[in-house]
Amino acid sequence: MEDLVSSCSAILSIVPPRDAKTTAQRIVSALSPMAGSRSSPLYYVDLNAVSPNSAVEINALLSANPNIRHVDGGIIGGVPYSKERGADGKPNWHCPSLIVSGQHEIPDKALAAALNVQHLNLPIGSATGLKMCFACTTKGFISLAIQSFTTAHELGVMGELREYLRKYNPSTLALAEKGLVTMPSKAYRWEHEMLEIADTMAENGGFGKEL
């Protein structure tokens, strides 16, 4: 870890949400706390799916070291994949957006452009909050679909449920069917992320967690 932080100008943290704070602490512990011990600061771009409150806690942790610049962020959109080729014969790409906020920005403009970084001129916690609101509608929908399909199966009306969804709301059926079969391999990440979403809805939206 000491070799990593000494050789990097920027670190992008993308780990299971439960490990976000621990990872930040590892960076702080590995980097010298003496001001000016580096020729340039280390930019720590936290892109983990955590609540605004967690982002503020991570910022406090990182701010204890004057050699670290915290960039609060979140990833919105699926993994990159190539689409149809353009007139030049090169493939066009679908790219997720890296939303960041806070007073610091990634100083390497070429890197920021390559990563499709979009900076919000808002305080720490804003980018993670936007990510949580987006995830609430996507992962939250899959959670409801799991409950709905499971209950329909137990009632013996799974076929009828799919039939009526296909008839009256085909886009919902397509999203549900795709989400249900792709979710299991991601569950280890989703578990803590759903808790972070609940914290966001409670602390920032005023909704009780029991809802």
Describe the structure.
The mean pLDDT is 93. A hairpin with a 5-residue loop joins strand 4 and strand 5 (91-94). Helices cover 50% and strands 17% of the residues. The protein is of the alpha/beta class. Helix 6 (158-168) crosses helix 7. The protein is built from eight helices and seven strands.
What topology emerges from the helices and strands here?
Elements: H1 2-7, E1 10-13, H2 20-30, E2 42-46, H3 52-63, E3 68-76, E4 81-85, E5 91-94, E6 97-101, H4 109-114, E7 117-120, H5 126-155, H6 158-168, H7 170-182, H8 187-203
Parallel strand pairs: 1-2, 2-3, 6-7
Antiparallel strand pairs: 3-6, 4-5
Helix pairs in contact: 2-3, 5-7, 5-8, 6-7
- Tell me the number of strands: 7
Terminal CA distance: 41 Å
Biggest β-sheet, characterized?
5 strands, mixed
What would you call the structural class?
alpha/beta
Shape: globular
Helix content: 40-55%
Low-pLDDT stretches are none
Number of continuous helical runs: 8
Q: Which strands sit side by side, in order, in the main sheet?
A: 1-2-3-6-7
Strand residues, percent = 15-25%
The Cα radius of gyration reads: 20 Å
Order of helices and strands: HEHEHEEEEHEHHHH
Mean pLDDT: 93
List the main descriptive attributes of the protein structure presented here:
211 residues; alpha/beta; five-stranded mixed β-sheet; two-stranded antiparallel sheet; 8 helices
Compose a concise summary of this entry:
This protein is an alpha/beta fold and 211 residues long. Helices cover 50% and strands 17% of the residues.
